Amino acid sequence: MGAAAVPEEAAFEKPVDRGEPILQVRELVKHFPLTQGIIFKKLVGAVKAVDGVSFDLMQGETLGIVGESGCGKSTLAKVLMNLEPATSGSIRYKGEEITKLSGAALKAVRRNIQMVFQDPYTSLNPRMTVGDIIGEPFEIHPEVAPKGDRRKAVQDLLDVVGLNPEYITRYPHQFSGGQRQRIGIARGLALKPEIIICDEPVSALDVSVQAQVINLLEKLQSEFNLSYMFIAHDLSIVRHISDRVGVMYLGRMVEIGSDEEIYDHATHPYTQALLSAVPVPDPTARDARGRIVLTGDVPSPANPPSGCRFRTRCWKAQEKCAVETPALTVRQWLEGPAAHDSACHFAAEKESEAPPA
């Protein structure tokens, strides 16, 4: 068999209608090998950070990704950006497979898919001025902004994200955390991308600054017709900004649906447990809410449980859960908003079946 054809850069320029898939991920896997020995290394296993994740990102929408620490959210983001090579699976951008790309074709994809990193203190080079940081993408993609226009382009980007254009000569240490994250967003916008992957962009910021950055992201989305994949721990922020939400547990997607379907009609026990832990400001409502307290620790991704990975902490678990891996699909007995993709053999809306706290 011959080698697969490498798509031309022009293939990534074709427009995608709003509501149509711009990014299609199927059975994506990323395993990190575990070895023993110094000279003669022996493969003894693998950390299954991402293990069979599938979803679509639509043009113009925000897809929120939630889950506890260590579930594979940030690894998923890095694989989508090709910062980490996928072990297996498919990532299709505008219908073109991008997991095996290199050279000019990969460069074209990275222009259209940008990333905003979690920590604004370490994602900016302290030895570079703001102008150099935001203008660096123009060095790699000179066709976006000719040399004579770059200073003006950087100042325009600073203005777009709400910073003084005269800050172009300052260094990162002269800014607050929220201002640094705005600089990171400006860098992500420099190449006029279609997709921005936000890897917990507000988790290191104060609550008041979080609101400012979220409002900025929403404004930029409508202004530049962006598609977001928004990774976060804070479920309230994800609901505020997201059109659809995907819930990850131990390297797999366990539930995905619209914000109403996930937050008001969750059917997977893990999602229900996550939602029950969200702080409620009203003491009366807090006492009336049925809190789900999970027992046991999260299993190691190097040795996940057989079948359903959540079964070791699930109050619904039965023998079938240990033998058969549940598919991420709509269960035929569910109706209305509860009828959305859920990877549980016994998917159902939360009732009195939850264990007491």
Automatic annotation (TrEMBL):
UniProt-listed GO biological process terms: peptide transport; transmembrane transport
Occurrences of domain ABC transporter (ranges): 23-275
Alphabetic keyword roster: ATP-binding, Nucleotide-binding, Transport
InterPro entries tied to this protein: AAA+_ATPase, ABC_transp_ATP-bind, ABC_transporter-like_ATP-bd, ABC_transporter-like_CS, Oligopep_ABC_C, P-loop_NTPase
Any one GO molecular-function label of the UniProt entry: ATP hydrolysis activity
Family: Belongs to the ABC transporter superfamily.
Identification of the protein by name: Dipeptide ABC transporter ATP-binding protein
Source species of the chain: Kitasatospora camelliae
